[in-house]
Amino acid sequence: MELMAQEEAQKSADVVVVSTEKPMTDDKEVTVPAPVPEKEVTPPVASEEKAVPEKVAVETEADKAAPVKEEETVVAEKVIAPSPEELEKKALEEFKELVREALNKREFTAPAPPPVKEEKAEEKKLAEETKEEEKEKKEEEKATVPAQEEAVKSGEKPSEPAAAPAETKPEEKEVVPVTTEKASGAEEDGTKTVEAIEESIVSVTPQESAAAPEETTVVAEAEPVEPEEVSIYGVPLLQDERSDVILLKFLRARDFKVKEALTMLKNTVQWSKENKIDELVEAEAGEEASEFEKMVFAHGVDKEGHVVIYSSYGEFQNKELFSDKEKLNKFLNWRIQLQEKCVRALDFSSPDAKSSFVFVSDFRNAPGLGKRALWQFIRRAVKQFEDNYPEFATRELFINVPWWYIPYYKTFGSIITSPRTRSKMVLAGPSKSADTIFKYISPEQVPVKYGGLSKDIPSTNGDTVTEAIVKPAAKYTIELPASEACTLSWELRVLGADVSYGAQFEPTTEGSYVVIVSKNRKIGLTDEPVITDSFKVGEPGKIVITIDNQTSKKKKVLYRFKTQPKSDI
């Protein structure tokens, strides 16, 4: 009894120990529903305290390692990121491979549709006829099998089918002997004979039917295919560096999307063939060429060396030239001829060469928006040039733009889809046109018609033009020195006119007389815009030019001069 009492007391003591330690574990493991075993509970919290620092140590090492990985990834991105030049080069190489494949497959030359369709139709008919013949043969052969089986079972010799003469169908000559040989042993096993007959029939027909497609494939492979030679703007594709410069223009026009650039190139080549551009370039100009040249002409270069092409939209008011569609089409053909000649005269030898134009469009006296047919023709012409002469405009200047042009510009701008092309467009009203031109083109290169000093032929002697501003209600003097006996010549222009002009020679030697070269005179808007004058200098001195501006607006003066020694006179 005492032992029993001791055991019960011991059990109660154990229960008390568990109950005293269990609240500590319950606070930490609230979500665990199962009771904790004694072995896991009895160890003190020291084990948990040891585990915690290990976790902290691991986290601190991970924290230390994290920024190192971030730095490595950043450095890797900087190294891997290709430059725009590398991307352009990669796109060009990919584009050249596609062009080479297209040349090998002769994809630039569109095949004549009628003959190809006829040949394909004939091939289809032949194939259908052969298939029908094969089906008929199989049906006839299948029809002979039941008759032979009945003959084998009855023990009689199978008779040859009357509907299949040996002369017309050679395939059945091979079938009949096989069936007769097998029929001799039919009494022993008739089913084997029938199977043998079926095998012999099946083995003959597919071999003969498979011969037809093999002949067609051999004929197709035997045709020789040579890469075609294609030129664009007079430059053969993939022959030298000039081709790379042209291909880059198509890539830029399509934002370096290679497949779209290839489609654009194919369309341009096809357009050139349809319009016979090579013949058009060599053709002589028509009677209207002299009138057309007043509208569109190339004259001089800009400050960077690009050829400048001027277009005067006011000439579209000439009813004699543009009275009907036929005359408009004549002008368009002439304009394409001029464009092609100018393009072929460009230097495509390297990417740094000046292989584009500056276009100056003059809207003075241009037809109003009411002439919709005329403006639709202009829009179609602009779209045609954009599609077939991509990236040939380095700058597009619109000068003397009237107030009504703003809504037209919105319509006109919708044609130009490339943001690159839109960024090159500059608009200027009548009062700002000259300043806008001189921003990109030197005055000595600008025609007199558009505010410059260049006449029919641009100056090539290197005489630079000086620009000056005359303030309102003020005078401005220009001094041209002459250190020895010579002939001094000068050209001068005041934009906006409405000023007074005078010139005199003032010698350096004391006691010499001042010589009046040109008396003061008023220069109006109707007078000759460019003043050309000269003076023979007999002694050292200077020419003094006086510009008197009595208006309330400032004026811009352009002038240049040169001296010719007396020995050369």
Automatic annotation (TrEMBL):
The organism's place on the tree of life at top rank: Eukaryota
Pfam name, any one: CRAL_TRIO
Segments of this protein annotated with the region Disordered: 21-72, 105-191
Record-annotated GOLD domain positions: 462-563
Coiled-coil positions: none
Protein keywords: Cell cycle, Cell division, Cytoplasm, Lipid-binding, Membrane, Transport
Domain CRAL-TRIO residues, every copy: 285-458
Protein name: Patellin-1
Organism this protein belongs to: Brassica napus
Lineage, uppermost ranks: Eukaryota, Viridiplantae, Streptophyta, Embryophyta, Tracheophyta
